[in-house]
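Lecture notes, continued. The same structure-token format from the folding unit now serves as the input rather than the output. Read the line below as a description of shape only.
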């Protein structure tokens, strides 16, 4: 877990608590081969060390594949999907999926991915931070993958099904996922699922303007110095905390931040640069 993760988590936690809502934690661990052993448990311990207490149990996507299979079957039954045998290398020069297998049968004796048929349809939504956002999903990415060639369910399908099943009404996350949101809304509509409200906080950047990510340059969080790091995150979220909070407790800092939360204070972009 790095500072960018804490910053996004704090924003969603504060927005939920300020509106007397529930804050949910979901471990998105569908890609089992790439999972680092013990990482999920370390993340949960870090959240707790910073005073981020979630409601209910932390849900793991790897335990919910029957829900994803049922949703995929409902789409297939309405002829909204097709099988695609195109490999990643075959599509590496394409900016969007060109519809190769939609117009013909997938190659025999070859592993296939299941794609959603995406028709031209301009998706528009009002983001609580970024304002109006519009995307024609067909033009942007084409027919999206719902189940990969290795038979792992795609994040797109899983997160849409999970949000509806868990009764999620408001989502606060990083702006790096802003362009993915219309694709989720498109799928929600095809599955007749409700649309949550979205808010995308600006992305923290490293010294070279790249996204603060899971790289060797990323700023890790230190539970031993939780309070000063948390106050720094509050400042990034538009909360100018009084000096007295630095001499108090984590619980006191959270209580103050929840009472003073206003998502309208968050800028669309941050000029802050995070360095080692």
């Amino acid at each position: 877990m790095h500072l960018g993760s804490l910053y996004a988590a704090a924003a969603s936690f504060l927005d939920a608590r300020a509106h007397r809502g529930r804050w949910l934690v979901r471990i998105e661990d569908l890609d089992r081969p790439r999972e680092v052993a013990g990482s999920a448990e370390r993340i949960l311990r870090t959240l707790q060390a910073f005073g981020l207490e979630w409601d209910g149990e932390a849900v793991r996507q790897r335990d919910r594949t029957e829900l994803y299979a049922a949703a995929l079957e409902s789409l297939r039954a309405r002829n909204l999907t097709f099988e695609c045998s195109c490999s990643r290398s075959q599509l590496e020069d394409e900016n969007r999926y060109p519809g190769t297998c939609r117009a013909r049968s997938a190659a025999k004796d070859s592993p296939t991915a299941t794609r959603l048929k995406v028709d031209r349809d301009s998706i528009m939504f009002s983001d609580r931070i970024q304002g109006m956002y519009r995307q024609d999903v067909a033009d942007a990415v084409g027919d999206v993958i719902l189940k990969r060639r290795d038979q792992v369910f795609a994040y797109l399908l899983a997160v849409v099904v999970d949000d509806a099943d868990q009764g999620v009404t408001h989502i606060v996350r990083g702006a790096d996922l802003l362009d993915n949101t219309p694709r989720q809304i498109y799928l929600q509509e095809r599955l007749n699922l409700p649309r949550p409200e979205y808010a995308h906080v600006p992305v923290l950047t490293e010294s070279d303007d790249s996204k603060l990510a899971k790289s060797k340059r990323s700023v890790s969080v230190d539970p031993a110095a939780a309070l000063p790091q948390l106050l720094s995150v509050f400042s990034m979220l538009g909360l100018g905390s009084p000096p007295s909070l630095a001499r108090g407790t984590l619980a006191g800092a959270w209580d103050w931040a929840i009472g003073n939360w206003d998502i309208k204070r968050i800028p669309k972009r941050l000029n802050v640069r995070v360095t080692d």
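Point for the exam: The domain at 3-265 is CATH 3.40.50.620 (Rossmann fold).
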